[in-house]
């Protein structure tokens, strides 16, 4: 079910990491939290072109810049020192076209509600990105289950973790740009860590603190295997997501005019792009987008084309209005002749 509201904690304005962000990334974070297609596990489709259209004067380049700041990759150097590095507010996988608001599951209180947590678990099945699945698994490990007295919450959480672990081990969702230069005791760059004393909605317990996983009582500890291992080679048969700059080519227009004369091409193409760009996970990937577009248009033509009237056993009449009027007149004349000849009694 689509979201109808977003929770923003007032303590967000006391979080030093969030306050340190420029206005653009702050706005983008609020914007992502309020999207209708944000799933309960915190994932939504990556749609920078659509997001840019929601503010006058904003460009796709602006969105990408702000997104990189939220990713934690817009710092002075490609491999910043631990003193200035911050774990990301979001995890972005541009190959699969997915974005994870990393701590939504925990900070929004979703994990405390068994029915909503089940919805989050179901929506996680649609996540294609192994980086994002690994980050989500790390977040589940961090849930303070000792704060919940519900056995159902604990059982659903354990089942959720088992679901994600089946496809592990995962690559680090935020690998260092230069792993060889990292000191051996600095961890693996996974976005998690001990938070600020004043937790707010967002990164870890705060927004951008660094460090390892907390191991407080009731908190599930992560397994090392879930945070390493290189990603597998991608299967070309998986296809790609619909590009943000998808356009109809002249060849497609020629085909359309021949096969879909009763369809509003612009309106249907807009609906086509809106539908497929918002389709998450594996179902949103196709091998041939031009062929997918043609199938969409053929379906629209079947809906919009003229339909013959009449019953299945009686084909529709192809006569014109004037011909039908003449048939009525002829029938009347036949009746009048029968009356005159006395063969028809009134």
Largest sheet: 3 strands, antiparallel
Q: How much of the polypeptide forms β-strand, as a percent range?
A: under 5%
Low-confidence parts: 175-236, 308-316
- How much helical structure, as a percent, in the residues? 25-40%
Shape: elongated
Computed structural class = mainly alpha
Please provide the count of β strands.
Answer: 5
Radius of gyration, CA atoms, in whole angstroms: 30 Å
Order of helices and strands: HHEHHEEHHHHEHHEHH
Reading side by side through the largest sheet, how are the strands ordered? Answer: 1-3-2
Number of helices: 12
**Span between termini:** 68 Å
Q: What is the typical, i.e. mean, pLDDT? A: 74
The number of distinct structural domains comes to: 2
Please provide a written account of the structure.
This protein is mostly helical and 346 residues long. The chain has 2 domains: 10-233, no CATH class; 237-304, no CATH class. 39% of the residues lie in helices and 4% in strands. The chain contains 12 helices and 5 strands. It has helices at 16-19, 23-33, 48-52, 60-71, 104-107, 114-124, 130-141, 151-165, 250-259, 265-277, 289-304, 321-341; strands at residues 43-45, 90-93, 98-101, 240-241, 285-286. A 3-stranded antiparallel β-sheet has the order 1-3-2. The radius of gyration is 30 Å and the shape is elongated. It starts with 15 loop residues before the first helix and ends in a 5-residue tail after the last helix.
């Amino acid at each position: 079910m689509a979201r109808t509201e977003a929770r923003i904690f007032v303590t967000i304005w006391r979080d030093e990491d969030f306050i340190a962000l420029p206005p653009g990334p702050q706005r983008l974070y609020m914007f992502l939290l309020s999207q209708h297609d944000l799933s309960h596990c915190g994932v939504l489709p990556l749609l920078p072109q659509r997001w840019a259209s929601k503010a006058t004067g904003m460009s796709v380049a602006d969105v990408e810049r702000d997104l990189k700041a939220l990713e934690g990759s817009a710092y002075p150097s490609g491999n910043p020192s631990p003193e200035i590095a911050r774990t990301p507010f979001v995890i972005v996988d541009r190959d699969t076209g997915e974005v994870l608001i990393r701590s939504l599951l925990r900070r929004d209180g979703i994990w405390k509600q068994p029915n909503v947590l089940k919805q989050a678990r179901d929506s996680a099945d649609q996540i294609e990105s192994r980086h994002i699945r690994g980050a989500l698994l790390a977040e589940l490990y961090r849930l303070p289950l000792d704060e919940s007295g519900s056995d159902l919450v604990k059982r659903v959480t354990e089942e959720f973790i088992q679901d994600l672990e089946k496809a592990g081990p995962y690559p680090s969702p935020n690998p260092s740009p230069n792993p060889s230069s990292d000191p051996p005791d600095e961890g693996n760059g996974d976005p998690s860590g001990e938070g600020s004393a004043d937790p707010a909605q967002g990164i870890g317990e705060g927004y951008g603190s660094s460090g390892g996983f907390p191991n407080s009582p009731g908190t599930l500890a992560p397994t090392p295997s879930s945070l390493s291992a290189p990603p597998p080679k991608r299967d070309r048969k998986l296809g790609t997501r619909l590009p943000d700059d998808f356009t109809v080519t002249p060849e497609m227009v020629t085909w359309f005019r021949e096969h879909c004369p009763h369809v509003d091409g612009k309106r249907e193409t807009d609906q086509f792009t809106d539908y497929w760009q918002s389709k998450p996970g594996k179902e949103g990937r196709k091998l041939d987008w031009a062929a997918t577009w043609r199938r969409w248009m053929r379906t629209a033509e079947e809906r919009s084309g003229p339909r013959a009237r009449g019953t299945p056993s009686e084909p529709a009449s192809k006569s014109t209005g004037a011909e039908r009027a003449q048939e009525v007149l002829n029938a009347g004349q036949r009746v009048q002749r029968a009356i005159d000849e006395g063969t028809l009694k009134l």
